[in-house]
């Protein structure tokens, strides 16, 4: 959470309307077949140019010029081999720990540092990069968007642009997941095929791409029971692994005698020192609380609520996803003035409002309801949203913490909302303030041993050995030869 993000729904709707024209048939660049489309290539590019700042604002750019340059180099090399080499391709390394890669229309492709950490060679990376390029070249996102009505797309834009009063239970990040519309299994399979084709065309061994699906399979059912976004809407990873192996074998057989690159050591050395997991300087969650060392504040998280920490704001979603809280910076330096701007800007019908103190900090709290405007295509107006928002003055900033739920459900969540608001306080605990980030450390194996033995030698805690074995793409009992490189960690709680 680093900076405020504020864009009203009406502004984005104004930008979206010119992008859509009368339905027509277009030729798919990959298949050569006619397909229904209401979006021309020019409009597709404009869409990507408008989505891109939203992605950057929400995720941030990971500052690693050499790794970014590698992503751009390989992306452009593969895009040149694709059916749409003349798109204005853009490749970005974003500052997010989730294992994810995605694309938006017009040639914009994003890789998180989380997925870069989990690749174990250049060929794995190239296969997934080709997969995402394939989504763009085959116009999968455009096909999905063409099936939506203007009203539905405008509603999605509204959820992204005006997170204060969004659809019931939808956080901004959930809205972005709707923006990056889920592809069907056929589209995913086609992109896997294109990933094999493009990565093989630039000289990589696509069988390594298949191996990465084993990593995704373990992540989706690992000790933390996390389902990475890259695999959550995709076909079964092990089924994809089998099919990619078959396609890769066919591609390699068509070029007998050619040596295809894997690039294990070169890739591992590229990510040596890369940030791993959450960056504590940007805020982190621990034992039911959120701490922000840089801005020196803390607050409690209700039990079982899911926290999403983005550069522009922190969000918490109730277990049943029917209530959401957001904490972000408000404008100005006066809590009452910030509250009044919030009331007016969101058309709040106020039930209560008053100045107060929260842990010795000046604050102003508002309780009321906001009537959602009916969107085009909706027959009835959406139910009113109840809100409780506090504006807290601290360190020269105004922090807004707002909880929202449908008016009929609000009382069920009000205690949790007030629990978080009333816990906002100055962070003084030096152990929290001085938390260091974890980073990937590339180590040369000093003797023939299992990855488990090597990790124990690196003082990796027992409860994290499985996590690190997945990070290395190996089973714990798998043997490593002397001189082999592998991933360990430094910083954080690793000594």
Secondary-structure blueprint:
Blueprint: H1 9-16, E1 24-27, E2 34-37, H2 41-59, H3 65-79, E3 90-94, E4 101-104, E5 108-112, H4 113-118, H5 122-137, H6 140-146, H7 150-161, H8 172-179, H9 185-201, H10 207-220, H11 229-232, H12 237-253, H13 264-270, E6 275-276, E7 284-286, E8 289-292, E9 297-300, E10 306-309, E11 314-317, E12 323-330, H14 335-345, E13 348-358, E14 361-370, E15 385-394, E16 397-406, H15 410-423, E17 425-426, H16 430-433, E18 438-444, E19 449-450, H17 451-457, H18 465-471, E20 479-480, E21 485-491
Parallel strand pairs: 3-5
Antiparallel strand pairs: 1-2, 4-5, 6-18, 7-8, 8-9, 9-17, 10-11, 11-12, 12-16, 13-14, 14-15, 15-16, 18-21, 19-20
Helix pairs in contact: 1-7, 3-5, 5-9, 5-10, 7-8, 9-12, 10-12
Protein name: Zn-dependent protease
InterPro entries: Mito/Outer_Membr_Metalloprot (IPR051156), Peptidase_M48 (IPR001915)
Cofactor: Zn(2+)
Structure description:
This protein is an alpha+beta fold and 495 residues long. The chain has three domains: 267 residues, no CATH class; 154 residues, Protein Transport Mog1p, Chain A, CATH 3.40.1000.10; 54 residues. It is built from 18 helices and 21 strands. Helix 7 packs antiparallel against helix 8 and helix 9 packs parallel to helix 12.
